[in-house]
Amino acid sequence: MSGVRRLLADRMVLGLLALAALLFGMPALKPLFAAAFPALDRPLYEADGFLALTLDHLALVGASTLAAVLLGGAAGIAVTRPFGAEFRGILAAVAAMGQTFPPVAVLAVLVPVLGFGPAPALIALTLYGLLPIVENTVAGLDSVPEPVREAARGLGMGPGGMLWRVELPLAAPVILAGVRTAAIVNLGTAAIASTVGAKTLGLPIIVGLNGSNPAYVIQGAVIVAALAVVLDAGFDRLAALFSRWRPGAA
Amino acid sequence: MIAFDGVTKRFGAWTAVDEVSFTVQAGEFRVLIGPSGSGKSTLLKMVNRLIAPDVGTVRVEGEDIARLKPEALRRRMGYVIQDVGLFPHWTVERNIATVPDLLGWPKARVRDRVTELLTLLSLDAERYRGAYPHQLSGGQRQRVGVARALAAEPRILLMDEPFSALDPITRGALQAEMAAIHKAMGTTVVFVTHDMDEALALASRIAVLDRGRLVQTGTPLDILTRPAGATVRDLVGREDWGLKRLAVETVAERLRAGEAAPLGESLGDSLGEPVPAGASLRRALAEMVARGADRLPVVDGQGRPAGVIHLADLLRTPDRA
Q1: What is the CA radius of gyration of chain B?
Q2: Cα–Cα distance between A223 and A53 in angstroms, integer?
């Protein structure tokens, strides 16, 4: 067990090191890109700092995932309560639609209404992240064993106390897995927000694609990849924290 | 203490409980027994309002519980279920502290109470208070379940087939502990089971239910010797009725007080160990069969010789109705 843990820790550390190296050391790689792509006049994306792009990218992913957690979590809780049970099917359908609707299409619809910038991207990504969070909130709350609910009621917990003290903590590992899926998917998808004028790591990628500059595309993509590794490793640690009470936990 | 008055509960077309009226006195160990679907669990859950009756009233300590807040009512009663239902994400200590925490007891008092209860239920407090439920055996889990139910010193303890899922040895141990706890604390217990041996061993009074109706109430001896109808006769057993009959009476009630224990020359060494006067006649019979003896020396609670019990004493008066 401790061996596995050390490995996870390493993944986190390695990812962070790679990320830091890319963010601060990208200019140093300029000769490398120049050698790899001799035909390019500008082998390094220099219009914006990579650190600034990364922070904007993370802000967009964080805000959209948080919004999806609040909306999806609240909806998932509501349909597992007696008063919301009949909306359960509708919610599942709406969340599934949110995911099947391509974010690019959502952007296309929203830009005429909201204009260019991060706002339409935030909405598109929130919708995109809703499905795994709703599904896992419902599945997690459903997985709370009936005897545990009966004991909680029988000992005198009210509906709110039971949700907060028993149901949500027990559902937390499953809900967290949904949040993780949403966050990782949005981390990749957020790049397209740069098509509507939001500053993200998608900017070098899109500029590179438009200008036939593969070096820009690579520079944007490797940072997104390093971010994904760090985020995933972070969720692993969080999951271990929420699952301490489970059989097999250290 | 607990009074059911004309209580009826229907689930769709099914009548789970059908106009049941009876009273559980303070300090009683009341066992509700009956076959599956007899309504015994439904009746129990009406006491803490997990189920509300369609018709009739349930009174606890004189109050109509339909007028009380369900959460407040439940915190006054212990509740133990067959599947235990420990909170898997909480330690043993926090599980036991559930109701005291809800009631806002000070931390030090809660901690002392947890130690006291773990000791009462034969669990090493320092070893188990920090354990998670998945680290315990089935018997230990139900011990914690009972401790959790007793935590806030309830005057009423509701138990829904609490020991049915345990192996026979663990079940026997927990039954003995439950009997001792009841004796020591005087808690009013309402206990649901489908096992007549368990009912006879624990109950001060039994209520027999069948298809939602109350068919008989009485002491274990009443139920055995004057069964009201075929259902009760089935429950008390047709083949091993005699053994159940012996189980509800103690050696003390039939022993020949003052008779000196034979010193074993003709009976050999097998006479040996005396039985306690508080043991059941069933145990005395088992000892006789095991030793091949037709009499046993008896000692009282302090271990002093109290007399002798003969096989013939066990056979006296077949009082079957």
Answers
A1: 22
A2: 10
Strand B256-257 with B275-276, pairing: unpaired
Q: Is the pLDDT of residue B48 over 50?
A: yes
Domain boundaries of chain B, sorted by first residue: 2-246, 251-315
Q: pLDDT tens across B117-156, in order?
A: 999 999 999 999 999 999 999 999 999 999 999 999 999 9
Angle at the Cα of B274 from the Cα atoms of B270 and B280, rounded to 5 degrees: 110
Cβ atoms < 10 Å from Cβ of B72: 11
Topology adopted by domain B251-315: CBS-domain (3.10.580)
pLDDT digits 0-9 by tens, A185-235: 999 999 989 989 889 999 999 999 999 999 999 999 999 999 999 999 999
For an interface test with A, the pick among B42, B87, B102, B161 (most A C-beta atoms closer than 10 Å) comes out as B87
Coil, strand or helix at B137: coil
For an interface test with B, give the residue of A146, A155, A167 to mutate (most B CBs within 10 A).
A155
Residues near A125 by beta carbon (within 8 Å), at least 6 away in sequence? A60, A61, A64, A65, A68, A103, A186, A189, A190, A193
Name which of A151, A161, A245 is nearest B85 (Cβ-Cβ).
A151
pLDDT at position B267 is: 46
B2-246 has which CATH code? 3.40.50.300
Whose structure tokens read 């009282």?
B300
Residue range B7-34: mean pLDDT, rounded? 95
pTM: 0.85
Taken in order of first residue, the domains within chain A and their CATH numbers are: 2-242 (1.10.3720.10)
Contact at 8 Å (CB) between B102 and B75? yes
Query: What is the per-residue pLDDT for B292?
Result: 84
ipTM field:
0.84
